Amino acid sequence: AQSVTQPDIHITVSEGASLELRCNYSYGATPYLFWYVQSPGQGLQLLLKYFSGDTLVQGIKGFEAEFKRSQSSFNLRKPSVHWSDAAEYFCAVGAGGGADGLTFGKGTHLIIQP
Amino acid sequence: NAGVMQNPRHLVRRRGQEARLRCSPMKGHSHVYWYRQLPEEGLKFMVYLQKENIIDESGMPKERFSAEFPKEGPSILRIQQVVRGDSAAYFCASSPSGAGLQETQYFGPGTRLLVL
Lengths: 114, 116
Known about the structure:
- The structure holds 2 protein chains of 2 kinds.
- By secondary structure, chain A is mostly beta strands.
- Helices cover 0% and strands 52% of the residues of chain A.
- In chain A, the strands form 3 sheets. In chain A, strands 2, 5, 6, 10, 11 and 12 form a 6-stranded mixed beta sheet that branches. In chain A, strands 3-9-8-7 form a 4-stranded antiparallel beta sheet, with no helix packed on it. A two-stranded antiparallel ribbon of chain A has the order 1-4.
- The radius of gyration of chain A is 14 Å and the shape is globular.
- Chain A starts with a strand and ends with a strand.
- The A-B interface holds A 4, 6, 32, 36, 41-46, 49, 51, 90, 92, 94-107 and B 4, 6, 31, 33, 35, 40-46, 48, 55-56, 58-59, 91, 93, 95, 98-110.
């Protein structure tokens, strides 16, 4: 079965600084990988996804993520964060076939300092 | 195009009562997924349904929980005889045709269940 680890429970970044959120997955084949963002009291919004092809994926709101098979990682990056980026970020993996649903990490809470 | 709708947004039940959570998928979507989010945890997959069919319920607790997605109307997640441990946020997601995970799952705002 697949699993996802987000090693950082909380991350604090100054506004305007760069950001990297870590995600490691465990899965035997090439996984489907996702990053979602959740604002307080809200549902999840998809930031980006990777299925195949170019390992650097561009998403919404200026986010990008890079799939590194050798490290089993799919880290999320943003060159310059804004106060509105403060939220909970979830990495997720899917096994494909559509039937299993997604497996989520526990999330990283991003705090933006002024 | 309205997004995924869930109601109620907040639900309070006493131990032993029944909870019914409803999910209306996005227009044109015929596949629904239910997830549960416990405090300080990520989302856990519960069940995947098509209209009138349960495709995968591997994440559903064996007792007290059931789900349906009738031909007409919303998908329903039903929890019988709720216990305090059922307190969580329950999220519904939908996708157009379930043709693999290449199709994005769109999430609703969730129902926050509190069991007293």
